[in-house]
Amino acid sequence: MSASILPHGEIVLVNELVATPEKFHCVRVVGRITSYHPEKNSLVCVDPTATEECVLEVNVAKLGPLAVSPGDLYLFIGEINRDFGKCLLHARVCSNVRGLDMNMYKRALQIRRKSL
Predict the structure, then answer these.
(1) Fewer CB in 10 Å around end: N or C, the chain?
(2) Backbone φ/ψ region at 64: left (φ over 0), alpha (ψ -120 to 50), beta
C-alpha cells in the first residue's frame, strides 16, 4: 500500500508570495495576523519583515477552530490557489511562532538559499 506524501512547502516570505504567486504551489510562510473571521474560515496576515504592507489571505477550513488574535505571528504550511487573480493560501498546518526574531529568520533564509 503506498501512502500519499504531502510536500513540506517551499520557505517563502509573504511579500515574495504575493508578488509572484505563480512561482509557488506548496509553501511555508510566516505572517502577522491582522484579522480572523472564524465564520468564513479565513484570516488575513501581513509580512512582518516588509516595508510595504503585503497582505495574504489564508483559508483555515482544514484546521478547525483557532485561538488566534490580531498581532500574533504564525507559520503556515499549505497550498496556493490563484483563482480570480488573487493569491489564497489553503493552510493545512499552522503554528504560533510568537517570539521568533523575524530579522534573524530572514537572514537565515537568505543564507539557506545561497547554500542550496
Answers:
(1) N
(2) left
In sequence order, the 6+-apart residues with CB closer than 8 A to the CB of 35 are: 43, 44, 70
Q: How does DSSP classify residue 61?
A: G
What distance in Å separates the CA atoms of residue 55 and residue 12, rounded to the nearest whole number? 14
Per-residue pLDDT tens digits for 58-76 = 999 999 889 998 999 999 9
pLDDT at 10: 94
Q: Are 46 and 108 in contact (CB under 8 A)?
A: no
Which element (helix H / strand E) includes 10?
strand 10-13
H helices then E strands: how many in the chain? 2, 6
52: its cell numbers: 510595504
81 beta partners? 88
Mean per-residue pLDDT, 78-100: 90
Entry field: residues in the chain = 116
E strand intervals along the chain: 10-13, 26-37, 42-46, 55-59, 73-81, 88-96
Residue 16 DSSP label: H
